Fold this sequence. Notes:
Blueprint: H1 2-35, H2 38-47, E1 49-55, E2 64-69, E3 74-80, E4 83-90, E5 96-103, H3 105-116, E6 126-131, E7 134-140, E8 146-147, H4 148-153, H5 161-178, E9 188-190, E10 196-198, H6 222-230, H7 233-239, H8 246-270, H9 272-275
Antiparallel strand pairs: 1-2, 2-3, 3-7, 4-5, 6-7, 8-9, 9-10
Amino acid sequence: MYILHQNRRSLMVGAMICLICPLVARATDETAQTTLTKDQIKHFLVSAKIVGSKQSGKGITSPWRLTLSDGTLTHDASFQAVDEHKSSVTLASGRTELNFVDSYKYNIAAYTLAELVGMDDILPVYVERSWKGNSGSLSWWLPVKMDEEERVKNKIAVPDPDAWDNQMYKIRVFDQLVNDADANLTNVLISPDFKIWRVDFSRAFRLYKDLQRPNDLVRCDRQLLEKLKALDANELATKTKHYLSKDEVKAVMARRDKIVEHFQKLIAEKGEKGVLY
Length: 277
């Protein structure tokens, strides 16, 4: 009887450990999201061992969800290896695009640009990494509740409309800056506390120097506007030299000029309080 009792206790303890361990691992990952610095996340993404993989069914390029571990932390990341260059492509909308590019390199360029203008808190960290012989972008997996398409479809109200609007204003500015040919609501991810993340820039950085939708630009974060004014073409070219061409950098700077000009005009019409926050 004593042996039977001891065996039963051992089984119960083992079962409890099995239940607790995933919770501890999940808590560790959630803590890492808020405690790791951006440099630590970058180091983890480029150096941690890939211990698992699963292909995502979402998105045109169907990125892979990889599981990484460095022996202390285990966390997932999104791997996208698309790198297509075609003379022309007919898009789903029916529009034909010449000199079509769909490349993981633009994800890394977008994050680098976001760092320069102080918007890297709205994009996940992107790095370049090789997996199974293919180079691609690897980004920190985010705690996501839904995307904006789901929120709109299900008519889910945001808890703090002002905070939500301020995030969306910044995303609209960034979308105009990078000129994403495939920007859509599924690229706007929403965390459980309604923080917004903007992801997937593989079809960005078109060579157009005009803004796609200037009417989207109605308000702007004050610090973001100052960062845009201070954006230096040489620094951008140096930091994105493996990912953007000279013409793509020139197009970014031309759009930057038009964004700044647009907001300065709005400020002259409505005053700073009506435009900046």
